[in-house]
């Protein structure tokens, strides 16, 4: 998703440079070229940011991991849908098609069909992501930890505790990777499941 954001946002920025030229802006102003540029920069950037936010925070908030294979499939489907929907709009704009039209010229119908198919694929990818969230809840794949990670966020419990007693039922775990983690158990207590930083020589004994 990060690579997708960089590529699509850069492509939208390049089309913005095209629109910054006065000669070209007089021709492309208020055409579908502007629509395509705007959606590549703003809509896709916002959508990808929301998806990345869910991927990053969902395990921490819920304590459940998302299916990696399904996420990769959803990323591919989304990018195919995005580009099928918005990329042909540049051609519309270069042909001088205004932003608001009631009836397309007959020669533009096939491109409009491509854009429509891309929009349906994009909508399906959004529904597919909701399914991925639902699947993580149903399958209950609990998060065990974030390997070799040392950020402050990784020091929090997963899911976040409702009280501030961080060390109920602790036991020591001798492992080389970074931070410690906790997960809920059925009796509303939480087990101390941790990978302790060997540098600090931290050890909790029950």
Strand content: under 5%
* Spatial order of strands in the largest sheet: 1-2
Straight-line distance between termini:
42 Å
The percent range for helix content is: 55-70%
Question: Overall pLDDT, averaged?
Answer: 70
Summed up, the domain count is: 2
Structural category: mainly alpha
Coarse shape? elongated
Low-confidence stretches: 164-206
- The count of helical stretches stands at 5
Please compute the radius of gyration using only Cα atoms. 24 Å
Structure described in brief:
The protein has 206 residues and is mainly alpha-helical.
Q: Helices, strands, pairings?
A:
Elements: H1 2-20, H2 22-28, H3 32-62, H4 68-94, H5 109-139, E1 180-184, E2 190-194
Antiparallel strand pairs: 1-2
What does this structure look like?
The chain has 206 residues and is mainly α. The protein folds into 2 domains: 2-139; 148-206, no CATH class. The protein contains 5 helices and 2 strands; from the N terminus they run H-H-H-H-H-E-E. The chain has a two-stranded antiparallel sheet. Helix 1 packs antiparallel against helix 3 (32-62), helix 3 (32-62) runs antiparallel to helix 4 and helix 4 (68-94) runs antiparallel to helix 5. The longest helix is centred in the first third of the chain and has 31 residues, at 32-62. It starts with a helix and ends in a 12-residue tail after the last strand. Mean pLDDT is 70; it is low at 164-206.
């Amino acid at each position: 998703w990060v690579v997708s954001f960089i590529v699509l946002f850069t492509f939208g920025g390049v089309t913005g440079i095209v629109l910054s030229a006065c000669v070209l802006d007089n021709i492309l102003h208020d055409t579908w070229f502007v629509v395509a540029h705007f959606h590549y920069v703003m809509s896709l950037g916002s959508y990808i940011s929301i998806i990345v936010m869910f991927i990053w925070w969902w395990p921490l908030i819920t304590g459940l991991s998302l299916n990696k294979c399904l996420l990769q499939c959803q990323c591919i489907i989304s990018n195919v849908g995005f580009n099928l929907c918005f990329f042909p709009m540049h051609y519309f704009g270069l042909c001088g098609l205004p932003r608001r039209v009631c009836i397309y010229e007959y020669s533009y119908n096939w491109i409009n069909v491509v854009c429509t198919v891309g929009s349906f694929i994009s909508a399906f990818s959004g529904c597919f992501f909701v399914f991925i969230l639902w699947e993580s809840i149903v399958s209950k794949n609990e998060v065990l930890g974030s390997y070799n990670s040392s950020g402050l966020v990784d020091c929090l419990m997963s899911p976040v505790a409702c009280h501030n007693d961080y060390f109920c039922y602790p036991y020591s775990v001798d492992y080389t990777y970074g931070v410690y983690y906790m997960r809920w158990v059925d009796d509303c207590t939480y087990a101390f499941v941790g990978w302790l930083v060997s540098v600090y020589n931290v050890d909790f004994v029950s």
